[in-house]
Amino acid sequence: MPASEKGVTVGVLALQGAFQEHIARFASLNASSFTPRVRAIAVRRPEQLEQCDGLVLPGGESTAISLGLHNAQLTEPLRAWIAEGKPVWGTCAGMIMLAAIATGGKRGGQELLGGLDLQVGRNGFGSQVCSFEADVVFPMMGNQEYPGVFIRAPVVEKLLGDAVPQREAAAALTTSPNSLSVSVCPASALTLPRPPIEVLGWLPASAVPSVVAPDFTHTAGSAAIHGAHPPRDAHVVAVRQGRLMATSFHPELTGDTRLHAYFVREIILPSL
């Protein structure tokens, strides 16, 4: 039976963060004419992950999520899931977990899953009191804007053209007493052939004038921009690399389900 008829199962990591809201957004797709039918489940154990066609890593606190994965014995199963090319969508803290390199973390760093050729800065848009809402530009939606909720959101600092040497350089920094806030994914997460990272959406610079956006066209070692081409001074806040997707904001905290629908139709269904 085709997946479009039997439906799909989307797991939402439920160790910490806004997992219930994601489950509710996927469930709301079934109240419309959306196909296939979506079954969203909470994932807290490896055997629950095995039931899923796709997985969401929700927003929350990335260090707490990393510790929760370790305690639930989910870190290595998730790394294997990503290495096998299965669909994953990371939102906010989930983007940090999927990044190759994360800066601005706590002393000693944190474990990353890796998978995305991306360097992000934790809390790059500011602390909790600096949280804000702003419209995100999504060319794949016909340039229709998407309501972005940014809560201690990560900033995309680099699109990594060749993530292996840049990861190695970042890993060397972690041994320096002055650079303990750098975290890197395992080297094995970058050894498999990967499609280029693509830009899906961005935030105009005018939305957060207090934060300077990187110029991806001139950043040393950054990737050529694939997918949509943002203005030079825009903040990239949504990316895709093969079957991995990440957004630095919280789509689950709005009533807009277009990104949830996109994840199911454009990333999960083609993988089945």
Describe this structure in words.
With 272 residues, this protein is an alpha/beta fold. The protein has one domain: Class I glutamine amidotransferase (GATase) domain (Rossmann fold), CATH 3.40.50.880. The protein is built from 8 helices and 14 strands. Strands 2-1-3-4-14-13-11-12 form an 8-stranded mixed β-sheet. It has a 4-stranded mixed β-sheet with strand order 9-6-5-10. Strands 7-8 form a two-stranded antiparallel sheet. It is globular. The relative contact order is 0.18. The mean pLDDT is 87. This is glutaminase. Keywords: Glutamine amidotransferase, Hydrolase, Lyase.
Name of the level-1 CATH class = Alpha Beta
Strand order of the largest sheet: 2-1-3-4-14-13-11-12
The CATH topology: Rossmann fold
Name of the CATH superfamily: Class I glutamine amidotransferase (GATase) domain
For the secondary structure, the number of strands is 14
Q: Kindly state the percentage of residues in helix.
A: 10-25%
Rounded to the nearest angstrom, the distance between the terminal CA atoms is 11 Å
Q: Report the radius of gyration as a whole number of Å.
A: 17 Å
- Unreliable stretches (pLDDT < 50, length at least 5) are none
Structural class: alpha/beta
Tally of distinct domains:
1
> How do the helices and strands follow one another from N- to C-terminus?
HEHEHEHHEHEEEEEHEEEEEH
Give the averaged pLDDT, no decimals: 87
Pfam families: SNO (PF01174)
Keywords: Glutamine amidotransferase, Hydrolase, Lyase
GO molecular function, one term: glutaminase activity
Catalytic activity: L-glutamine + H2O = L-glutamate + NH4(+)
